[in-house]
Design a protein that fits this description.
The protein has about 140 residues and is of the alpha+beta class. About 25% of the residues lie in helices and about 20% in strands. It has one domain. It has a three-stranded antiparallel sheet, covered by helices on one side. GO terms for molecular function: olfactory receptor binding; zinc ion binding. InterPro entries: R-trans_p, ZAR1/RTP1-5-like_Znf-3CxxC. One of its GO terms (cellular component) is membrane.
C-alpha cells in the first residue's frame, strides 16, 4: 500500500531539505475498505513538503489515514477530499511557497481553519497514522 512506501525509509530522512506545512481541521470523510463504514473527521493531517533548488520547485503531498474504530485491523484508510477543500489547501500552499521561496507576501497566508472550528470528540492517537509516524501535532485532550 501507499502507506508502506513511507515506512521503508524514514519519512523524516527522505524529506530532509524540504520545508513543511501540516494541514489540519478540514472535515473530510473516511471509508473503511473492510466493513464499508464511513465517518467524518475534522482531524485530517496532510503533510506538504516543498523546496526550491536550482530554480526548480518540488512539492510533495502526503495525506495520513485513520484506522477504522470498528475493525481496527491496522489499515489506514485515506480520506476523501471535496473539490473545495483541495482548492483551499492548494491556495494556502501556493501562498506559503510564494512567501518562503520567492519572498512574495500577498497577505493571504491566514492561519489554519482548525482554529475557527470546535470539534467535540477527542483525538484518538491509536487510530491516527500521523501520530504513529510522529508527524501529528494534535493531542488527545484538545478540542479541535
Amino acid at each position: 500500500t501507499r502507506s508502506n512506501i513511507y515506512r521503508r525509509r524514514g519519512l523524516r530522512e527522505r524529506l530532509r531539505g524540504f520545508s513543511n506545512k501540516n494541514r489540519h481541521g478540514q472535515t473530510n470523510r473516511f471509508y473503511c475498505r473492510t466493513c464499508r463504514r464511513s465517518w467524518p473527521s475534522g482531524r485530517v493531517t496532510v503533510l506538504f513538503r516543498y523546496r526550491l533548488r536550482n530554480g526548480r520547485g518540488t512539492v510533495l503531498m502526503r495525506p495520513f489515514g485513520q484506522d477504522c474504530r470498528r475493525c481496527q485491523e491496522g489499515f489506514f484508510d485515506f480520506p476523501g477530499f471535496s473539490e473545495r477543500a483541495v482548492e483551499e489547501a492548494l491556495l494556502k500552499l501556493f501562498s506559503k511557497i510564494r512567501k518562503n521561496c520567492y519572498g512574495e507576501d500577498d497577505g493571504s497566508d491566514r492561519g489554519s481553519t482548525a482554529s475557527d472550528k470546535v470539534w467535540t470528540k477527542p483525538h484518538e492517537k491509536a487510530l491516527c497514522e500521523a501520530c504513529q509516524q510522529g508527524i501529528c501535532d494534535q493531542d488527545d485532550d484538545s478540542e479541535c
